[in-house]
Amino acid sequence: MNDRFELVEKALLKMLEQKKYAALRDILVTMNPVDVAGLFDVLEEKQIPILYRLLPKELAAETFVEMEPEAQELLIRGFSDSELREVLDELYVDDAADLVEEMPATVVRRILQQADPEMRSSINQILRYPENSAGSLMTTEYVSLRAKMTVGEAILRIRRTGVDKETIYTCYVIDDNRILLGLVTVKDLLLALDDDTPIESIMETNFVCVTTQDDQELVAQTFSKYDLLALPVVDGESRMVGIVTFDDAMDVMEDETTEDMEIMAGMLPSEKDYIHASIFDLFKQRIPWLMLLMVSATFTGVIIQSFEDALAAQVALTAFIPMLMDTGGNSGSQSSVTVIRALSLNELRFSDLPKVIWKEIRTAVCCALVLAVACFGKIMLVDRLLMGNAAVTPMVALVVCVTLACTVCVAKFVGCVLPMVAKRLGFDPAVMASPFITTIVDALSLLLYFTFAKAMLGL
Amino acid sequence: MNDRFELVEKALLKMLEQKKYAALRDILVTMNPVDVAGLFDVLEEKQIPILYRLLPKELAAETFVEMEPEAQELLIRGFSDSELREVLDELYVDDAADLVEEMPATVVRRILQQADPEMRSSINQILRYPENSAGSLMTTEYVSLRAKMTVGEAILRIRRTGVDKETIYTCYVIDDNRILLGLVTVKDLLLALDDDTPIESIMETNFVCVTTQDDQELVAQTFSKYDLLALPVVDGESRMVGIVTFDDAMDVMEDETTEDMEIMAGMLPSEKDYIHASIFDLFKQRIPWLMLLMVSATFTGVIIQSFEDALAAQVALTAFIPMLMDTGGNSGSQSSVTVIRALSLNELRFSDLPKVIWKEIRTAVCCALVLAVACFGKIMLVDRLLMGNAAVTPMVALVVCVTLACTVCVAKFVGCVLPMVAKRLGFDPAVMASPFITTIVDALSLLLYFTFAKAMLGL
User: A294, A311, A371, A375: which to substitute to probe chain B, counting the most B Cβ within 10 Å?
Assistant: First the structure.
């Protein structure tokens, strides 16, 4: 898919350079606004306004929403007041609020000046909610109905007021105090047998909703659990204040997944796309864990130092340290990532801990046995016979393999327990992934290694 | 959210045990089918049919769809033919096809016997498409319209035929040969000014669609790129054969993310949830990479062996091996995970490679300098002064820190290049994550370490 797009993009950019504006415009109007917005990402700054002014008004507004903040800012700075007003009129309130959040103060002032009073007050309302809360995600444009309306009246109301609403497919039934009473879908309305049916007799009163203060992660989880198109947001007194639509929920899901992956790889979560992050952003994101893990590796150093005599007596032992540490780290991160993912999909609860441990232990024993046997064979064949290293005696190989087996079991145990305990204590389980587990398992595997070596080799 | 559910669940299970069926039923009918299905997961086998028979017919069918395959199979085996038919009548075709895929042959035969002929043929059609293709995901129940219809006729058609369709909100305009001509949303229809407007004048002809053979990953990416509710699926001759709805696309997104995370943690992707996977499933998923990585660690062993003399002359060097390897591994996996994620979100293309390398190198240099200085300070303070290890001379510390700095740079370079090259060559970039990068970086960091040690310490 990407390759095809790249070819089309190149052709279009060439037309822009050659000033074939009419032909370019004819192609642009057949394209999806998302793809048109993609074009602006690869343009030079001075080309951005040129291409934008080629777009017919409606497509221009639809494309504007999908652009990167950099291009949006550049365009707004070049807009006349009336041009800015035209774009703002086409935006949904939640997109306008996102725009205001992204722009510098001078641009924000112009946006708020040009927005109509109703939109201005809605934007201000949304911006008051904490970042990453349901309130900050929602739009205040939804279709509201009354319980006493008939199906016919409701359809009429949708036809009259629906044009400015982000979704009309779920309508919200509220009372005089804006308390949310129930939901009606357009499907229910259209399929109702009789236009005189009162809304209260067909509305769904067992609905799922969130409050303005709920975290966006809960919003995303609720969407995917219940397969929703839109989710009503209420305040502390159950009064309807807005809806979150599924496109924003999908974006949150993507962001949360990226955040999980970043944390699992030992990074602080970032707000920016990789391509828009500065060197300093990346540095800030990565150095804390690198520093912490480097310092905590002091333990492994201390362990090795305190067994220096044993190592000096049996130099062959040193060569297996990386293999033991890596296999331990890999075994542990397999378990921890599996458990972290199951936790984030709500497939596991803390009460499942004994079941999880029992499962991991049995899996670990299977893996450990197979690895140990294979490792013993490999050492005797490759290290001793093939490479003729006489210092690698069968006893040394045995020490390595016993350590390997124990390390795998310990690693899988630590890997499954730590994320679940972290979650129970209110921490993000994703922190307990590969880098963290590796550091712990390294120290444990070295301790096991030297203990077995001393005992079995009589060092 | 979880805790609250656990309390409600416990209360409901207690009512079931105490046979307070009427009261239990009164609560169940107020619950969302997804939550009712969750109850079945924690029931004992013999309780499952009891609880199921408490549910009113429609809720029973809605709950059935959401259950785990184990509970579904148990229930079907206990169903009379007419009970089975009732449930099948309530299922959408894509859910029925999923059910058929999950069940053993004897159960499948009964399902196909009881399904009405139209559903049977649709199920068979869906099952013919390759696993994980758009065809296997789709449903064949959608609203089709003709270009010459008027808005009024279209609304009438939806009201007459919509009850069995999974979504009515996007309707598909086809010609006599079932070629897909355009889309019309119910919003367009309801907001059309005049009921006599012909469909062809308001239909959207620039639509996105996939073919039956396209991979489900492309389907999921298309949904999130264009924020779709439903995506039309056409055959090789552009004939409309079905639609994928957003709930199935969200499930695919979740599955693909899980798969990415599994691969990144050095596991083969699994088809089953963690909680339903057997020990053997987990073993099969985990052992191949563990084995491969263990064997490839032979290289690190060989490197250490060939520098045995240097190590024997300066035993203090050994203690820093784990720290160097881990920091290298962590630096590399930070870069690789960032790049892998950006690739899977389509934020990066292969042509961005020089930009990415330049970005990573500069970030690496910043991280490397800070880490090296901190490490030098730590070694001199902790290892030399605090622990009184006279063998750790300033020169040894310098060797360690120079190696550390170089390792971080090499690791970040390898970490960003390998996933992009893998993607270019048609492999899954996720394979180039932590375990794989670690193995390569380990070997490189050891080579650097001993080279610097020999040169700077004159070993």
Answer: A294
Q: Tell me, yes or no, if B273 comes closer than 8 A to chain A by beta carbon.
A: yes
Q: Searching chain A, which residue's CA lies closest to the CA of residue B412?
A: A286
What is the sign of the dihedral through the CA atoms of B229, B235, B237 and B239? negative
* Chain B residues 51-80 with a CB less than 8 Å from chain A: none
Give the Cβ contact number of residue B455 at 10 Å.
11
**pLDDT band at A3, cuts 50/70/90?**
low
pLDDT beyond 60 at A1: no
**Is some CB atom of chain A closer than 8 A to the CB atom of B216?**
no
Structure tokens given for A243: 């809806």
What DSSP letter does each residue of B31-84 carry, written as one string? Answer: S-HHHHHHHHHTS-TTHHHHHHHHS-HHHHHHHHHHS-HHHHHHHHHH--HHHH
CA–CA dist A32, A10 (Å, integer): 17
Strands (E), A265-349: none
Which residue of chain B has the CA closest to A164? B191
A193 touches chain B (CB under 8 A): no
pLDDT per position as a tens digit, B104-128? 888 888 888 888 888 888 888 888 8
* Interface ipTM above 0.90: no
- The DSSP secondary structure of B331-357, one letter per residue, reads HHHHHHHHHHHHHHTT---GGGHHHHH
Alpha-helix runs per DSSP H in B67-206 = 69-78, 81-90, 93-102, 105-114, 117-128, 134-137, 151-161, 186-191, 199-202
pLDDT at B160: 87
Interface of A with B in 5-24 (CB under 8 A): 6
| A252-256, B87-91, B237-241, B400-404: segment of lowest average pLDDT | B87-91
CA distance B130 to B122: 15
What tokens does A178 get?
Answer: 């804006």
Answer whether B429's CB lies under 8 Å from B344's CB.
yes
In angstroms, what CA-CA distances link B148 with A210, B174, B181, B202?
43, 10, 12, 11
Alpha-carbon distance of B315 to B392, in angstroms, equals: 9
Q: Find, in chain B, the residue whose alpha carbon is nearest to that of A5.
A: B349
A267 part of contact set with chain B, CB < 8 Å: yes
Q: Which of residues 78-137 of A touch B (CB under 8 A)?
A: none
- Give B 280-339 residues with CB within 8 A of chain A: 280, 282-283, 286-287, 289-291, 293-295, 297-298, 300-302, 304-305, 308, 311-312, 315-316, 318-323, 325-327, 329-331, 333-334, 336-339
| pLDDT exceeds 90 at position A359 | yes
* Residue B431 token pair: 């394979």
The residue-averaged pLDDT of A444-453 equals 93
Residue with tokens 């091996």: B321
**Residue that the structure tokens 């450990």 belong to:** A368
Q: Of B184 and B161, which is predicted with more confidence?
A: B184
- List, for residues A103-133, the tens digit of each pLDDT value: 888 888 888 888 888 888 888 888 889 888 9
Rg of chain B (C-alpha set): 30
Residue A55 Ramachandran class (φ > 0 left, ψ -120 to 50 alpha, else beta) = beta
Q: Please give the residue of chain B at the shortest CA–CA distance from A433.
A: B265
**A272-287: b (≥16 Cβ within 10 Å) or e:** eebeebebeebbebbb
